[in-house]
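EI: anyone free to look at a 235-residue chain?
SC: sure, send it
EI:
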Amino acid sequence: MPEDVLFSVTPVSLRVPAQEMPGYRGERVQCGACGEGINYHREVRVNGRALCIPCAQGGLLPNGNGIGKMETLPKVLLIVGYKKVGKTTLIEKLIPELSNRGYRVGTVKHHHSDFPASFDTAGTDTWRHRQAGASSVALATPTDFAMFRDNERSISLDEIVSALGATDIVLVEGFHDEPRAKIEVLSDPNNEPICKTDSHLLAIVTPRARRTAVPAFEPSSIKSLADLIEREILT
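SC: here you go
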């Protein structure tokens, strides 16, 4: 009697992608938001930008218990205008108004000078660390954390925003060339806005409201302006 056949062998041809082969080293790309390197083609393309998976889904941010949870990246609103027109004053008024409505507010100030920015008081320990040549210095207290770091290149607004931590909206003073929602401040209502042809311009703040293509608010109309921000950006 013939022996029972338990199995048979059939030759096959498999095509294994190069990235699946042992020892494969693919091109390393940099996340356009946090700057981290991404290996093995794991980047996610969002609007033409290469992002790591956490940034594409929303940053991994700590909650009140210190436990990481996934949160969406904060909304960004640019406060723009010429020098000395009241941009900082407007931000100072918007922060408590939005905070009282339950939003976590972060801020960014765009400094145009190429000289190293100095935020630390001369003579302090952290100032002495930097003067001694440290490229990065961190200051930690039970309630605050600050980082001073030298940069080899200009940091993008996305990288700055992603480093702010748990916020719902970031008010940015400057960066008027960025294609983002913005409010322009005018000290003289007769002046032409620098962003008058920008489709991202949401509103104008000027001492005397005038007829414009976008809503115009007086500097004292903070509640009405916050209503617009809630409606157009935060909801």
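EI: Residues 59-70 have pLDDT under 50 and may be disordered.
SC: 👍
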